Amino acid sequence: MVPLKPIRPGDTIGIVAPASPFEKVKFESGIKFLEERGFRIFVSEAVFQRDGYLAGPDDQRARLINQMFADPGIHAIWSARGGYGTLRILPLIDYPTVCANPKPFVGSSDITALLTVLNERCHMPVFHGPLIISFAEADAATRHSALKIFDSADGWRIKADPCRVVRPGRASGRVTGGNLATLSHLMGTPFEPDFSGGLLLIEDIGEAPYRIDRMLTQMKLAGSFSQINGVMMGNFRDCGNPADIITIVENIFSGQSIPILAGLPVGHGPSNIMIPMGVEATLDADQGILTYQPGFFADT
After folding, report:
1. Quick one: CA torsion of 110, 116, 121, 127, rounded to 10 degrees?
2. Same domain (yes/no): 166, 272
C-alpha cells in the first residue's frame, strides 16, 4: 500500500462531481465548513454542469478527476455528491496518472465504485466518508472525523454505536466494500472488486430487505465472499426493519466462521465517520471496535 501525504490547513482540496448534480446551498455549506478549518478549496465551473441526472457529460466528469490528480497544486480530492453515474466514468479514468500522483480521495455512496477501483488499481488508501453536500446536515462526530483522520499518526479507531454483535470473534484484513448496491453493480465487469482476505463493509439506503437479500445472494453465488475475513454493517437507512437486515446477513454468511458486527456509524445515516479503505485493520466484534494501525499516511 502506498502511504499518502496527509493534508494540513493551508493545503488545497479539489472538488469533483463523479455522479449526480447537487443542491448549491448544501454544496456551499460544505465548502464553507472546509474553508473555516483553514483549507483552500478549488472548485471548477465544470462541477456545476448538469446532463439530466448526471453532473455533466461522462468525459467531462472523468476529465476533472484526471486533472485533479495530475495537478501538484491539489493536495486532496473530495466528492461533491453521490447519486448515480460513477460507474459510467470508470473506463475514462487515467489510472497511470492517478497511480503516479496518489493523494487522499474522499467519497461514499455511488462514489464507492471509484474508491474501490482506485484502491485496487493504484494500491493507495482511499477514504469512505462524508460528501461535500452532507456536511450541511452531518453530526458533530462526522465533522470531527472528516478532518481528524488526517492527523491520525497514532492510528484510527471506529466504534459501533449502537453495537450489535451478530457473530463474535476477531479478525484482521484489508478494509473493503462500501455501498452495497454499487458494489453489486460492479460484478461481472472489468472493475469487479476482490474482497479476498478483507474485512467487508456494507451499507445502503432505500433498499427493501428482499433487494438487499438479492444483491448479497448474487455476490455470494459469484464467489465474492468466499475468502473474506469479517463483515461490518454500517447504516441501512430506510431499508425496513434493521433486525430483518441483520437476519439476512446472518443467513448469507451462515457457512463461514467469521466475525460480523452491526452498528458502525458509516454510510447513509446521521453519522458517516471517515474510514480508510484498502488499509489493514483489526475487527473486534466482541468489543464493537475497528482499529487501524499507523502507516496509511507517510511521515512528514
Report:
1. 100
2. yes
